[in-house]
Amino acid sequence: MKPWILVLALGIASNALAQDAHLKAGQAKDHIGETQTVCGEVVSARYASRSKGQPTFLDLDKPYPNEIFTILIWGENRAKFGTPESKYKDEDICVTGNISSYHGVSEVIATEPSQISPLK
User: How far apart are CA 111 and CA 117, in angstroms?
Assistant: First the structure.
């Protein structure tokens, strides 16, 4: 076997494994406390400008008030993301970070735009 074929095959296999490593929004609840990449469609997005901390909520796969996974961006970090509630709405994205739970809903707090990427 030619060396370049082996390198190509290994590259394809590792890329497939990396894609499989992503969690779906509904799977995040089983990974609380872990740093993982969670992917889904942003089906509801809102900026609570009058709430304490001025949070922005991006809900994946199921909309508020029945959300199953939320990306939370606090107001202190919001400027880094622009207007995330419109930028990411209806987009398929992934977020990487520590998964926590708030009132039974899995979430990742995003502090840097590099944590969020388009789903490939």
Answer: 13
In order of 10, 57, 71, 74, 120, the CA distances from 51 in angstroms are 49, 12, 16, 10, 34
Query: Which of 73, 85, 86 lies closest to 113 in space, CA to CA?
Result: 73
- In the chain the domains, ranked by start, together with CATH numbers, are 23-118 (2.40.50.140)
Query: pLDDT per residue over 54-86, tens digit each?
Result: 999 999 999 999 999 999 999 999 999 999 999
Looking at the DSSP bridge assignments, the partners of residue 95 are 38, 116
Q: Point out which residues pair with 47 in neighbouring strands.
A: 56
What is the rounded CA–CA span in Å between residue 42 and residue 57? 10
Parallel, antiparallel, or unpaired: how do β-strands 69-73 and 35-47 relate? unpaired
Of the segments 9-13, 16-20, 83-87, which one has the largest average pLDDT value?
A: 83-87
What is the C-alpha to C-alpha distance for residues 107 and 57, in angstroms, rounded to an integer? 10
Please answer whether residues 35 and 64 qualify as being in contact, where contact means their C-beta atoms are separated by less than 8 angstroms.
no
pTM of the shown model: 0.83
